[in-house]
Each structure stands twice: as C-alpha cells, then as structure tokens.
Amino acid sequence: MEIKFGGDFVVRKTPEQVYEFLVDPNRFCPLLPDYQSKEIVDDKNFVVKLSVGISHIRGTATVKLGLLEANPAKHAMYEGKADVPGGSATLRAGFDLESAAGGTKVVWSGQSNIVGRIASLAGGLLEPLAKKNIQKMIDELQKALA
Amino acid sequence: MARKKTKAVRAPGKKAAAARAGAIYSAKGPGKWVGQPIRRKEEDRLVRGKGIYVDDQKMPGMAHIRFVRSPFAHANIRSVDVSRAAEAPGVLCTLTGAEVAGLVQPFIEIGPEAGQKIADYPMAVNKVVYQGEPVAAVVADTRMAAEDAAELVEVDYEPLPPVMTAEDALKDETLVHPAMGTNRNWHGMFEYGDVEKAFRNAAHVVHIGRMHFHRFSSTPLENNGVIALWDSKADRIEFWSNNTFPAFAAQFLSPALGVRIDQIHMKSFDIGGGFGIKITNYPYMALCALASRKLGGKQVKWTETRTEHMLASAHGNERTFYDTKVALDKNGVMTALESRHVDDCGAYPRYEPLGCVIWAQVLPGAYRLRNVRIDMNQIVSNKCPVGPNRGYSRMQQLWFMERVLDICGHALGIATDEMRVRNYIRKSEMPYETPNGCVYDSGDYAGMLALGKKLIGWDAWKKKQAAARQEGRWIGIGIGSTLDSGTNNFGQARIINAGAPFSGQSKAALAKLDIYGEVVVSMGSVPQGQGHETTAAQTVAEVLNIPPDLVKVKPGFDTEQNVYTGHTGTYASQFAVTGLSAINGAAEKLKKEMARLAAWSLKAKEKDLEFGVGEQGPEVRVKGKKGKSINYWALANIVNVNNAEVPEELWDVTLNCRHVYHAPFHVPDLQRKFGNLTLTYAAQIHLAVVEVDRETFQPKILAYACVDDCGRAINPRIVQGQVHGCTAHGIGAALMENCAYDADGNLLASTFSDYTPITAMNMPDLLYGHIESPSPFTFNGAKGMGEGGAAPVHTISAALQDALYANGVIIEESHNNGDSIYRALERARAGEYAAMVRVEHRKAARAR
C-alpha cells in the first residue's frame, strides 16, 4: 500500500543552516519516531533502528537510510528501506528549501510503500499511523530548527 | 469470437450415450453392510487424539526448515545474503534460490506452447512472482532456531508492477514470466451445435456483462507438512507428507530432483483434510529433500504455519466471465449460449491448465442446452498459484450457468423454480449425452428440486417473502443446482496438450487373508477424512458376509506397502467408484481363492459353499451341513504354514489378491474437444432464504435446505457428513471467505482473522434430503460425492439476486458480504446494471 504525504513550514534559520541540519545524521536521525540507535556507514548512508509496532505486531525495524539527492541549501532527499515485522517498507522523503522572510520555507514531501503481511493485517491502521508519525517528526524538526 | 457453422446437434439416444460410457450395471438395493449407516471405523482413533499426522513425527536428530518469503508480489531479486543466518545458533545450513537452481530442474509444465517456457523452481531464483514465494530457507536443529535465523536473511528487492487482474494480464504490458512472452497460459474454443442458427431463431436474447468468481481456498485443519530424508547410501528419498495425490507429485518430483521414480518413497498416515489443495505442495517436498541431502541425510521437517498456508500454499481458481449472450425460446428455455471466460491460475500453473478443460465435464450444467460456444482462456498473474480446490473448475462453470439461468429468469419474468424445471435435463432422458460428449449417468433434478421445496417450505416462504416486502424488507429465495462429476478421465489432459502422457483412470487394491486368518485390505487411495476405512470394510464385508469389524483396513498410504497406480490419490470425487471397485475386485478374487481352498479342504464342491461367521469366527462352510466348515485361520494356515499337502493345482492360491480397476474411458476427440470426461454425475440441489439487513447490508440465512443424490450411498452417515461439510465450505465461500488482494499484490486475508473461515457458529440449521439414482456405470450404483460443486455459492447468489432484483442489482460476484452488497446497491442507484444486462425480444420469433 502506498502512503503519500507532504506539507510545508517556515523556520527562522537560513537555508544553509537548515540544509546542514537535514544532512547531518547525528542531528536528523534522532528525530525519527521511536528512534533507538544509528550506525553511520559513510557520509551518505546510515542504518537507523526504530521501535515499531501496531497492536500485537511489535519489534525493531532496521532502516537503511541513504541520502539520495543533496543540493546544498536547496534540496535534500532521503531514501529508506526497512524490513519490518511481517513485511517490508520503502520510503522517500524530500525537502525543498526556499528563502522566506526572516528564514526558510521547508517544503517536504514523500511517499512510503508498505508490502507484506503487515499491509493485510493492519492496512487500515497504517495510513493514519504513518501520518501521525510523520507529523511527529516534522514537529520535532520544526522545534529543532526553531 | 470465431464464427464456425456446424451441424445442429441433438441429444443422442440413451443407448448411444450408455454405450459411450461403458459397462452397464443394474441397480442394487442396500446390502447387509453396504448402504448401512454404520459408525466410522476411523472415528475412535481420530476423536481420541490417536491420529498420526506429519507433525506428530518427532525423531532424534530431525532438522527443521523455515522459509524466508517475499513480501513483494512482483520484484527482481538483487541479492540474498544468508551469512548472518548461517552463523546463528543452531543453524545447520541454508538454501537460496540460486543454489536451488543449480541442484534441480524446473518442474514439468502440463500446458503447451507459452506455458512450457515457464521455469518453475521450488524457490525464487532471479525474481519473485507472488507474495509469500520462498526466496531462501534456513535449516536448524529446532524449529524456533530456524525461525529466528530466517529473520536474519537479508534480501534486496527491486519492486516491479504486479499483474493483479485478468484485464491487466491480458494487456501483456507487464509479464509475470518474460520467457513466455505473454501472460496467456492457454486458450481454446469449445463450440458445439449450431450457435448462429439458435440465435437467429431465438425469441429472446439476453446479454450479460462481466461476472466474476472469486478466489477462496479450503483451509484444512492440518496445514501442509512434509518430512524428507534423502538417503544417499540407500539411493532413495523418503517423503512422509500429507500430499493427497502422491502418484502425481512423484511424477513432478522425479525429473526435478534427477532421480528415478522408484527411488521416491511416498507415505502418509492420517491427513487432516485436504480438499484438493495439498496436491500441489510438492515444491516444498523438493526443498525439504534438498536440505536433507545438503545435511548428508538428516530428516528435515517442515510444518506450514496458517499464514504461510494462506499466502503461499494454493488457492482455488478465480474466473471472470465476459460478454455472455444467451438465446431463449418463447418459454424461457435456453437454446444457445456464448461467452468468453478467463481463468486466473496465479503465478505458476502447476496442476494447470487442466482446469481449462475440467470445467467442460459440466459444460451445460444441469440443463438441456445443446448449442454452446465458450472461448476459454487462462492467464498467469502475481497471485498465489492455484490448486485443484474442492469442486475444482466445475464449480466456476456451474456458478456461471446458474447465474445465467437466474438472470434470464428474472429478466423474462419467469419464476426461478419454473425456469429450472423448464430447462433441466429430464430423468427420462438419462443417460444423457451433453453436447461435448460427456454422459450424465442418472439423476432426477426436477424431483430433487421438488423435495427441496418441500423441505424448506417453499410456498410458505413465498408468502412470508411477499409480506416482508410490503414491510420494506429484502428477502430472497434462491436455488442452486449443481453437479459433482466424479472419476475423471485423464484423457482430457490431451485436449489441453495433445502430447500429455495421461489418459483413463485406474485404482488398485489388495485384499488378503493374513497369516493368522485376518482379512486385511490395503487401498490405493490417500484418505483425508472421507471414511475410506469404513466404506472399504463395508464393501469387503458384503463380499465375504462377515461384519466390517472383522475387516482390517490399513490406514494411510505407502508406496512401498500399498498397491497403487499412476492415478493413485484422493481427488475428483471418485473413491466410491474407483477405490471401491478395486477393493471389491480384490475381495472377489480373494473369495474365489478361499472357496477353492475350502472346497479341497472340506472335500466339497465350490457351489455348495457359503461364507459367514460361525462359532470359531469367520468361516467357509458347506451349506446345510452343520460342523462341516473351515475358519479363516485354518485356511490361511494351509497356504502359509502347513502347505506340504496342498495339491499342485492350488499352488497359485496365495490368499493375497491384487485388483486394478480400469474406468471405461477412451481418449477424447481432440479436434472436437469431444468425449466422456468423467464417469459419474452426482447432483445437489440447494435452496436458501436470505435476508439483507437494510441498515448494515449484511446478508443472513433464514432457512437452508439441501438435497443430495450421489447414487447408491455406501454409508448414508458418511454421505450426510460430507454434504454438511461441503455446504459449510460453500456458505463460507459465498459470504465470508475471500482471498482478496490489493492493487500492490498484498493478500488481504493472510490470517483467519481476515479470512474468517466459516465455523459452526455461522452455520444455519441444515434441512437435509436425499434421493438415490443409482449409477448404471458403477458396480455398486455409487457416484462420487463430497466436493459438492459449491452449491451454496450458486444458491446464495440466487437468493441475493431474488432479494435485490427489484432494487436494480445484478449479482455479478460469487462472494457477497455487507460491504459488497452496499456497493452493489450504490451501483444500482447509479444505473450501472442497466448496461450490464440487456434483453432483446425478437418480434419475428414471437410472431412465429
């Protein structure tokens, strides 16, 4: 099942500062929902462990995250792939940065594709849960950039 | 569609039809034991937990295999990394698709042309083609260790768009198997009679748009299971499995594993249900064997979980019906039908495309239709492969015929019971040859309907229905007429592929007087809950005039102990015919040998002997001469222990008698697709009263009746149990069970919570009736039974049609629940069904 999401917000940081934050795994990864730990493979690839679960399906998801596109002060896009209990998930999340009065407008968008038993077991729950978690991450991002 | 003018075909005479079917037997009444509702011999063992199933086998040193399965329905495999799993505690070895491809040949394909290009390995090699397909395996010393380690296998996939509908498959834009060059696995035109002429002369022509028969499965209590031992020293592979057609499985496994068929030892004991879908579990047997060989000859066990079963064992065939056109005379009698059918066999054909001809066993359903043109197609898709699920391929056709008849009846304003009576093949026309050469042996469909109407209280329900409609309630009364064709002629496989090395049908059995005088029978069948031990004992008891308790029937099946043929297995509703014919033949041979021996021993003539039970147990005695008898122990002793005095003319007496039953079949005419495809035709007529709740749209069964005619019932208690079982299965399929997928190829019912198989709590009270039309083509008058032809699916569709026709709804799906009925009503409000069913009333024909 495919879940699409997007939105924008404005922060009082320059596009350069926002970009540096977004591409720094030490600062960006802990914002991911239910973050446990991370392992930096190289400057563009890292492995993040997250606690995940819906109802009785609980466990740790190992997410391989890669910085797919990086255009300093303008654009960053992550691609992630995770084996979750009962399925597999792929994720693309992009951030476009525009100068705005007194700061930066962050236009974020992405899509996630969830396959496997988890989609059958919890298909109806996944979309609201994903949206809730993404909103949580964006809220944290806004706070961190405030 | 191709237009081919052929000579109009009328039903041939009864004699010609009977001659085509073979030997004619006169009807027998119930015997002393055959025909009696005795308790099942197996029950004591099974209900006390003494059954022995695959998973009950626990041997020291046995290894356990678990599979890593694809979450994707369609994806390229970039890499499979088993290194972490291989180092996990308890792990003995791993298998990957690449490794498997180097060890085995792809399984043989039954279909011709494009289908022959499919490389069906037991594990995905370069890409996965259905969700749940095995991509790797981990073998460990415990099941849990294997399970844990399997989670450590890393697979990198490149997702591809999946093919999830017949319409998408036919476009050939995305190919499931690129080597095929198409998704079309088989195509054939089945044309009989003069379709054009019938349409020209029709009083009414009804056009029906797309209809769809959904995927469901059988969900036996016991999932698939296998224990494999590849013993390289003994140069043999032993499979203890619950495969229900071992002779067929061995023919697939032997070339794939590169061994001779006699090196494969197949055995099973108790099997917790099968209903056809365990026939295609042989890929897992192959993987267990490969793991065993890799471990140097350890036993490797696999017991499937329920979720694995739902995802990746086998589903029933899904079929879509397009562009149906029906010609009817002024009385609503169908005179011609044309249609295009597309069957979806899932990712790998395996038993398919046999389903593309098996439906033709019941081509006209229970009706006198003579002019037919059906364009039959089969496609592959990114869904679980199908297996020959109970009612295999015929139920789809029967549902289609029932929907056609019902829709025509409603469209023409003819009551659905009357519509059926006008169209049914009549009792007086039996044996009846269908347009494609099948011979319906016997039956009284109108009589069964009359009994069913009486059972359910048809007239009273009609009044209640009318009153309820006044109150705004949606109540419908439906009829489902179905056939359970049994004892199939494998020659029909040649209609699919002229080079297929199959034809006819046979079963073997052995009856012997054991060394201490015990009567022992071993069957060439693979029982899985049908009560074979009991009906076999009844048959032998009838021959020898002893109680069935004195007949020991060996449970289970073993290729090294039982006698068998290449057709051995339990499928196609045939044990009462093929299995019991073989057993009866073996028992008669044994009786003859015992009589010869007894005549010598008693210094009497064979004609003066009788069989029975005396003071010293079962015996052979001289009629009317008290005390002049010999019991079975003494007879066995003469042959086996004390044989020095036996005269030479009796040296051929072994008291160990094998008999092979050959069904009287010929290879069909392949050009015309014409011939007798199956030997017997049991029938079931079901009736249901269903109400749709106006708030929730949930359908609820208010009354349900079924009438069965399986010819002479060998054991009416078993017959009734089987009818209950198949009715439950069908009601589940009609209202609850659906192997639905989403557009991405995710199975939406991979657990029982989602699939909701029927339970006793969902079953209505069943009103049961039974009539017997003995088959003239079987020695015991019996026909196959137990599959039931999915009668409830037809019946409930018909009842819903009756309930909602006034609202403009056409029941076009075989699965109907509250959600789908709500959507159907929405579609009706939007006027969509008006375009789906169109009726032409031909003035000229009416004037004539």
Give the secondary structure arrangement, pairings included.
The complex is a heterodimer of chains A (146) and B (848).
Chain A: E1 2-11, H1 15-22, H2 25-28, E2 35-40, E3 45-54, E4 57-71, E5 75-84, E6 87-100, E7 103-115, H3 117-145
Antiparallel strand pairs in A: 1-7, 2-3, 3-4, 4-5, 5-6, 6-7
Chain B: H1 14-21, H2 43-47, E1 63-69, E2 75-81, H3 83-86, E3 91-96, H4 97-103, E4 127-128, E5 134-140, H5 143-150, E6 154-159, H6 166-171, E7 184-192, H7 195-200, E8 204-208, E9 211-213, E10 225-231, E11 236-241, H8 246-257, E12 264-268, H9 282-294, E13 300-303, H10 306-312, E14 318-328, E15 334-344, H11 355-358, E16 371-379, H12 394-412, H13 416-423, E17 432-433, E18 439-440, H14 445-456, H15 458-470, E19 474-488, H16 493-496, E20 506-513, E21 519-523, H17 532-544, E22 551-553, E23 557-558, H18 575-602, E24 609-614, E25 617-622, E26 629-631, H19 632-640, E27 656-662, E28 678-692, E29 699-709, H20 716-735, H21 752-755, E30 767-770, H22 791-804, H23 818-829, H24 832-836, E31 837-841, H25 843-847
Helix pairs in contact in B: 8-9, 12-22, 17-18, 20-22
